[in-house]
């Protein structure tokens, strides 16, 4: 994002009524987010929607937020399940349209902590009232996944992926750890430094001045010597954990759940430094070719059965609290297990801008520099 957010907000007017579906719906989504029972018949929230609406769902899986932004810039898609490090860029670039929440009857069931979240609500017309650009879908932490045969007890610090050390099995962690292949991972390094190098004065891992940013890059360059692979494909990471000797890594609950279901020696934890995380919102393309089907899906996406099933499948937390009880797959303890009560401890992904959001003013490093700098780190520079 090479321009100030304030200069590029779209001014499009929301729809005022939902008509008949157009027969199709194209969605960009994270892996595991839109299931039709092909992997496990118990997890299917597409088939009945198609039968009820006539909107045939086509899903394009994206592995990173940057890929989602690129795909939305190309057009032809209706919806995207955007995390906070993509959502504001999409609004700033005029790629998504404001939503009329009056056309989404279940909006009132959304967790109040999410209804006005800054990663999908923006005052684009300057009237002092933020417009809604997304419908909250799911949220959760980025976890530390580890091999329970190597770690009899859960690691307590992210140091196991950032600092060279001997693991409990007597072997070095070099070549046995992974890091996320996305510029937003710089925030994970900043979060680690926020706890372990307080003299840097980091209070927000997404608002880094030049010295703080450089310190995070130095830590990531150090980590580069340990990383066997930078991951962005969830299924490749699963294979690496089983077949390539990876024993500890940043991950999503989705991979942990699938590995555990396959009988792998795996568990996850949130270390003492806390974690970054994602709160994903379904957003509509400004030129969505199937807007009526899109609104029908936005309402469907808040169905408590869908929300609970998805949370059980992905290891996430529903955006609809009512989904936390009475769901056979999630169980009544699933929301607590997945982090429902840890909302305030998670540093949710957001788009870094030059404006630090505090008394420092416009001295923070904007996202486009995060992109170029992280590419350099991965490349060994």
Describe this structure in words.
There is one protein chain. Helix content is 31%, strand content 17%. The protein is α/β, with parallel strands linked by helices and 381 residues long. The strands form 3 sheets. Strands 1, 2, 3, 6, 12, 13 and 14 form a 7-stranded mixed sheet that branches. Strands 9-8-10-7-11 form a 5-stranded mixed sheet, with helices on one face. The chain has a two-stranded antiparallel sheet with strand order 4-5. A hairpin with an 8-residue loop joins β4 and β5 (131-132). It is globular and about 60 Å long. 49% of the residues are buried. Residues 1-11 have low confidence and may be disordered.
Lay out the secondary structure.
Blueprint: E1 24-30, H1 47-53, E2 56-62, H2 65-74, E3 79-82, H3 84-92, H4 112-115, E4 121-122, E5 131-132, E6 135-141, E7 143-147, H5 159-162, E8 177-180, H6 186-196, H7 210-224, E9 227-231, H8 234-243, E10 248-251, H9 253-261, E11 266-269, E12 275-284, H10 291-300, H11 304-314, E13 317-318, H12 334-338, E14 346-348, H13 367-378
Parallel strand pairs: 1-2, 1-3, 8-9, 8-10, 12-14
Antiparallel strand pairs: 3-12, 4-5, 6-12, 6-13, 7-10, 7-11
Helix pairs in contact: 2-3, 6-7, 7-13, 8-9
């Amino acid at each position: 994002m090479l321009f100030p957010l304030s200069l590029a907000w779209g001014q499009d007017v929301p729809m005022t009524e939902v008509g008949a579906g157009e027969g199709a719906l194209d969605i960009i989504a994270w892996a595991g987010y839109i299931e039709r029972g092909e992997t496990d018949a118990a997890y299917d929230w597409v088939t009945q929607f198609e039968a009820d609406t006539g909107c045939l769902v086509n899903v394009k899986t994206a592995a990173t937020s940057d890929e989602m932004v690129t795909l939305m810039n190309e057009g032809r898609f209706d919806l995207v399940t955007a995390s906070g490090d993509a959502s504001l860029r999409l609004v700033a670039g005029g790629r998504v349209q404001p939503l009329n929440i009056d056309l989404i009857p279940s909006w009132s069931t959304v967790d109040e902590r999410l209804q006005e979240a800054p990663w999908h609500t923006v005052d684009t017309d300057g009237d002092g009232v933020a417009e809604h650009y997304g419908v909250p879908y799911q949220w959760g932490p980025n976890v530390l996944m580890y091999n329970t045969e190597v770690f009899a007890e859960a690691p307590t610090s992210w140091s196991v992926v950032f600092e060279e050390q001997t693991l409990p099995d007597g072997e070095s962690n070099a070549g046995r750890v992974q890091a996320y292949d996305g510029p937003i991972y710089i925030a994970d390094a900043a979060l680690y430094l926020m706890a372990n190098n307080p003299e840097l004065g980091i209070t927000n891992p997404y608002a880094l001045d030049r010295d703080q940013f450089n310190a995070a890059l130095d830590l990531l360059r150090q980590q580069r010597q340990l990383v066997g692979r930078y991951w962005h494909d969830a299924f490749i990471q699963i294979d690496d954990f089983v077949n390539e000797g990876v024993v500890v890594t940043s991950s999503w609950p989705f991979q942990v759940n699938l590995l555990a279901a396959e009988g792998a020696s795996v568990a996850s934890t949130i270390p003492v430094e806390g974690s970054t995380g994602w709160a994903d919102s379904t957003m509509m393309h400004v030129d969505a070719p199937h807007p009526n089907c899109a609104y029908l899906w936005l309402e469907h996406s808040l169905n408590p059965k869908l929300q609970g099933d998805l949370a059980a499948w992905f290891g996430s937390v529903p955006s609809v609290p009512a989904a936390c009880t009475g769901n056979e797959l999630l169980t009544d303890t699933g929301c607590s297990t997945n982090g429902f009560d840890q909302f305030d401890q998670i540093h949710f992904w957001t788009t870094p801008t030059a404006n630090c959001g505090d008394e420092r003013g416009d001295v923070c490093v904007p996202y486009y520099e995060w992109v170029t700098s992280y590419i350099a780190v991965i490349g060994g520079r």
